[in-house]
Structure formats: structure tokens, C-alpha cells
Amino acid sequence: MNRPLRLGVNIDHVATIRNARGGDHPDPVRAAEIVARVGGDGITAHLREDRRHIRDADLKRIQDATDLPLNLEMAATEEMLEIALRHSPHAACIVPEKREERTTEGGLDAAGQHNTLAPIVWKLRDNGIRVSLFIEADERQLDAALKLGAEVVEFHTGEYAHAHLDGDSEKVARELKRISDMAALAAKNGIEPHAGHGLTYENVQPIAAIPQIAELNIGHYLVGEAVFVGLEHAVRHMRELMDEAR
Q: Largest CB tally within 10 Å, which of 112, 140, 204, 226?
């Protein structure tokens, strides 16, 4: 029997809308409360170095507002490490970060950045924080995650999502096989595989059907849909599609 698939909802872009005008509305904490109420399994929030959406003060408010585990996405910097240690989220997902990018554009080069990542991973783990690395579905990167001692990898599904949007069925099939093969290899080696980036109602089910994947993290699409149908409906419908795929 396939394991239940968890849905982590990234609430960053609720904060993006708030920050466009300043002030406190719409409040990402209210979004977290809705996610908890309608069947989400976790809250994901990326505290970027430029604070373009989630703010420092949001983190404690999110943790206080719900019992859902917080997955803190963070760059591999001393500043972010200190913040993570102070807030003790359930998990910390280390992601690549460039100031000029609109959103995360690819996976972390865990293989090339071993010496930078190792002390950060160790300190997080020593403090009881589950460490995830956001990587491409690539054997070299997965091997690096294993050597670093990461408990989780989140596979970047951006290429799959772009191919689906472009109607490139051959590339969709290749990307899906790559993600599926790496999810199986991760699970075989004791690493829990997650996936995320660019997932929508239209493309989520083939990813959700991969039996080893334990969690999907979805944000921008759900916040966008919420403009039209409300966050409650958007999360519930995504949950239904994921459950159907399993």
C-alpha cells in the first residue's frame, strides 16, 4: 500500500502581496491557520536574505498560530543558521538563493558546496532540526546529500513543470522518470524524498503517484488560485488530486 502523501503549503506569496503595499494585510499567519483547518500537513516559509516576502517576525507568529510543522526554507548562510537555531522549526530546507532571481531557479549544488554546507547541516541536526536539501533529481547531488547527512531531499520539479506547460510530452516523460528513479534511490538509501516547484492542478498527479515521495510543497499556484476561489478551496482541491493519485 502506498504511504499517505503530505501536503506542505508555502505561504510566501501571501506575504509578497502584503509587502507590495506595506502594512499587515493580507497576513500570512491567517493563511497558515486556513491551511491547518482544511487538511494541510505543514507550513513552508522561505525567509529570503532580502526579506521580499516572509519577515523575521512572521516566523514565531506562524509557529504560535498552528500546530503544523514549520519547514523553514533558508540559504546556507550564518545569518540564516542563527535564525533557524533561534526558532527551532520542525525542518530546515536549504535552498540556493540569488538576490536577482524572481524565484528559486534550480536545485542546490550540494556536491559542489559540501564544505560550506557540512557545518550548517551538522549544527541544524545537532539542535534537533530535520535537514532537507532542495536539489535536482540527480544521482551526484543525491550522493552528496547522503554524505552530508541530510535526512530529506526535496527534488526540484521545475523542469518537469515547464515541459508540461510547453506540451513537450517527451521531456515530461524523461523528467518524470528521472524524478521517480531518484526518489526510489533516495528511499533505498534512507533519505526521505519530497518534491516541489511549479506544481499545479494540471501536473501534480504524476508526481504525486510516485510511491516513495512523502511530501509535496506547493505555494505560488495555490496562492494564485486563492485569488479566484479562496485559499480553503484551493488547498482542499489540491489535497483531493494528490489523494486520487495515490
A: 204
